[in-house]
Amino acid sequence: MSRLLAPTLREDPGEAEVPSHRLMLRAGMIRKLAAGVYSFLPLGLRVIHKVSNIIREEMDRSGAQEVFLPTLLPAELWQETGRWNIYGKELFRIKDRHERDFCLGPTHEEIITDLVRNNLRSYKQLPLNLYQIQTKFRDEVRPRFGLMRGREFMMKDSYSFHDSEASLDKEYKNMFDTYCRIFDRIGLQYKVVEADSGAIGGGFSQEFMVLADTGEEEIFYCESCGYAASRESAGVGKYKVTGQGVSRTEHKMQETLTPDKKTIDEVSGFLKISPEQMIKTLIYETEKGPVAALVRGDHDLNEAKLKKLLGVEEVRLADEKVIEKVTKSPVGFAGPVGLKNIRIIADTAVALIPDGVTGANKKDHHLIHVVIERDYKPELTADIRLAISQDLCPKCEGGHMNVTRGIEVGHIFKLGTKYSAKMKANYLDENNTEKPYIMGCYGIGVGRTAAAAIEQCNDKDGIIWPAAIAPFVIDIIPANTEEKEQMELAEKIYSELTKLTPDIILDDRPERIGVKLKDADLIGFPVKVIIGKALKDGKIEIKLRKTGETKLTPVGNAIEELAGYVR
Ligand SMILES: [Zn+2]
């Protein structure tokens, strides 16, 4: 420790908002160079190496092969798939001295597809899975949370190539199992959730989420059947219309004055009704024209579901002008009754409203006693809202959904031919016919996994590393380095244990014991060996970071016992 560059801080750095960021700075593991750009100091780098090594071992075991692709990527390949334009401002773009466009890679689908199309022709060479562990770049609008959302970050990304869906399914399952082994070995609690594919696109995908209260993502899960999904993609079970309480109102629909009352809260407060009675009407623009999407007043629309349902690339809330044109009234009074020349899509919960209230498409007016099918007819009724806690599970339709929080550390995708078709990346099948590769892609955030481990395991004193990725596993602490007997024993234990593993550190700094213990807890070494007062009675103290468990061990047993922790 006396030689180690580990500048620990006693105070919390002001810039850090989450525990992992705060504790990695305080423990002297990382330092900020620029927004979202960090240097790794020796302790931080050891953690990164440990995470990477576990990933590498398990990827190799899975049959994938390691490659290393460039970071500096020519625009031409990105233009082939159209992503040069689609990716937007998050892509770090640069020009070389000849004014040629390049970017710093945020992901490598195009690059790997190009490599494979130029070097592999026959179905006999398939399947193939290539991976790399490499630095990626993304020009985040708001880089924050330290390693959690950086502009430069380390990823393991891999890409598989197949000649059939069945082969892709098999490799996807292989990667699923590999990821489980990786996160099990690291020692994290996680859930695998169904996810939206986002900018990478393609078909089915799942995210590996490390559970942590401070996580950015909401995870919806069913305890009855194990279904789990991200907020974006969580389905909602079908509520059945049963017996009493749901019979439709017999009152006729009627217009009522709601001066200046526009929002759900304003209208429901003014009319003294529950938001559950309100039919919220949202006008969206899509490349196929505008759409009126109806959700219950207390629910929120899920744009990803709407997009999928309509089969469109983009949905965005219409601006004032479009709303006024469609509804022929100012914003705030839209409703489905009498709407013309626009597709009307209702959420399934809207269809169950027995006595609805909605905008009258007329300034300062709403309609009451509105009943679906009687007063308006949506073109489609489907699940288009965001799930909420206690919703029915969409899978077993018996259990209810719980919500917890997590951090996305891995994502596995079935891409299909999304990239290969656009890039004419073909192989020859047994009949010598050219066919596009069927692809999968699989990512793990390396730095993010380390940060997520801290978010999951920390306390007021500092980090509690899972042993598999701790920078050092055993910290040997002589209480007083001036005491010859203590130092000699410390050195002896150190040299014996380092024969078994390099994961041992000796705190030989001429500091007070209190300082050394504080640093040890802050950095999060799993095992502390304290050589101090008890030595008079021939004993040393072994203390575990995670449980706080302490025990005195006779010096004669020390090495054997500590070797057990190493193992
Ligand atoms: Zn369920």
What does this structure look like?
- By secondary structure, this protein is an alpha+beta fold.
- 26% of the residues lie in helices and 28% in strands.
- It folds into three domains: 19-235 and 403-454, BirA Bifunctional Protein, domain 2 (2-Layer Sandwich), CATH 3.30.930.10; 254-382, YbaK/aminoacyl-tRNA synthetase-associated domain (YbaK protein); 472-566, Rossmann fold (3-Layer(aba) Sandwich), CATH 3.40.50.800.
- The protein contains 14 helices and 31 strands.
- Strands 3, 7, 8, 9, 10, 11, 12, 21 and 24 form a nine-stranded mixed sheet that branches.
- α1 crosses α11, α2 packs antiparallel against α6 and α2 packs across α11 (446-456).
- It starts with 18 loop residues before the first helix and ends with a helix.
- Bound molecules: zinc ion.
- Zinc ion is lined by residues 222, 224-225, 227, 393, 395-396, 399.
Sequence-ordered SSE layout with sheet pairings:
Elements: H1 19-26, E1 30-34, E2 37-40, H2 42-62, E3 65-66, E4 72-74, H3 75-81, H4 83-86, E5 92-95, E6 101-104, H5 109-119, E7 128-137, E8 152-162, H6 165-186, E9 190-194, E10 205-211, E11 217-222, E12 228-230, E13 254-257, H7 264-271, E14 279-286, E15 291-296, H8 303-310, E16 315-317, H9 320-327, E17 343-347, E18 356-359, E19 365-370, E20 380-382, E21 401-416, H10 418-422, E22 426-428, E23 434-436, E24 438-445, H11 446-456, E25 458-459, E26 462-463, E27 474-478, H12 484-497, E28 504-506, H13 513-523, E29 527-531, E30 539-544, E31 550-554, H14 555-566
Parallel strand pairs: 3-7, 15-17, 17-20, 27-28, 27-29
Antiparallel strand pairs: 1-2, 4-6, 5-6, 7-8, 8-24, 9-10, 10-21, 11-12, 11-21, 13-19, 14-15, 14-16, 18-19, 21-24, 22-23, 25-26, 29-30, 30-31
Helix pairs in contact: 1-11, 2-6, 2-11
Residues 222, 224-225, 227, 393, 395-396, 399 line the site of zinc ion.
